Amino acid sequence: MRPIARVMLAAASGLFLVTPGPAVAAPAVSHAQLPTMSAEPNGVQAPFAELADGNTGAVRWSRQPNTRTPMGSITKVMTALVVLEAGNLDRAITVPQAIIAYDRKYDGSTAGLVPGEILTARQLLYAMMLPSGCDAAYTLAEAYGPGQAAFIAEMNATAARLGLANTHFTDPSGLPAPTGHATYSTPADLVKLGMHAMAQTYHQPAGPANRDHVWRTTNLLLRDYPGTVGIKTGSTDAAGTCLLFETVRAGQPLLGVVLHSSPTSDAVAESDARHMLDWGFGPILSLIPIP
């Protein structure tokens, strides 16, 4: 290697290279000191949280990982998983009249579905996972149960099969039916569940039997944190604001969850997730720009 090449490497790495022959000193280089990695992420407000390697599931950090607590619409990840495993996603499903009373009773978020319109199961999955449509979750449960009770039984059977011992469902949307704490899980269980499902923005054009819909994700990380690929927001009065998320940087996926970050603020849940991801990726990977 020529002396000039050695100097260039020294300048790039911030090192002084000592090699046989005439000494060549690296020029003075001014560079910012990278922050050191703390023992745990700072600034996370959620009392229940976990961050894991998205490839192996190995836990990187957690806070009360096995405490049972409500998780709001993160429940819909299990609803989606049950439907996906059942298959036949192109089947036509008629939106039932009962969605009106269901949404009004619990003041649930909706995808703007109207009783009588017909969509495929695949379209209803987008309607459920992006704008967090409780009307879509109810419709899928009615069709795939068939009926709510049978579908919820399958949700719990799937949880048992996946080893989610501290998880229980009483509603396909995570709404407070019959009470705010009836449907519950833990950070550890939700990270396991999160290894199975993902989502993004989707436009469903009007068809012969359905209206035009534009469904946008409620997950702020997908918009604001480069490399984020999912998964689901959640909130009820009992659950507060929650977020199950996955982000990939330089080929390394991290998957985590925050529960009860704030009584009402989605931005606080996003901030908690951001603190955890910045910590998990470290001072270098967290700064890598991603298109």
Any chance you could write out the topology, listing elements then pairs?
Blueprint: H1 3-13, E1 48-53, E2 59-63, H2 75-86, E3 92-94, H3 99-106, E4 118-120, H4 121-129, H5 134-144, H6 148-161, H7 187-194, E5 202-204, E6 213-215, H8 220-224, E7 228-236, E8 240-249, E9 252-259, H9 266-285
Helix pairs in contact: 2-4, 2-5, 3-5, 4-5, 5-6
Structural account:
The chain has helices at 3-13, 75-86, 99-106, 121-129, 134-144, 148-161, 187-194, 220-224, 266-285; strands spanning 48-53, 59-63, 92-94, 118-120, 202-204, 213-215, 228-236, 240-249, 252-259. It is built from nine helices and nine strands. A hairpin with a 3-residue loop joins β7 and β8. The two termini are 35 Å apart. It is an alpha+beta fold and 291 residues long. Mean pLDDT is 82; it is low at 1-32 and 198-204. 34% of the residues lie in helices and 17% in strands.
Features:
disordered N terminus; 291 residues; two-stranded antiparallel sheet; alpha+beta; 9 strands
Concise summary:
The chain contains nine helices and nine strands. The protein has 291 residues and is an alpha+beta fold. Helix 2 packs antiparallel against helix 4 and helix 2 packs parallel to helix 5.
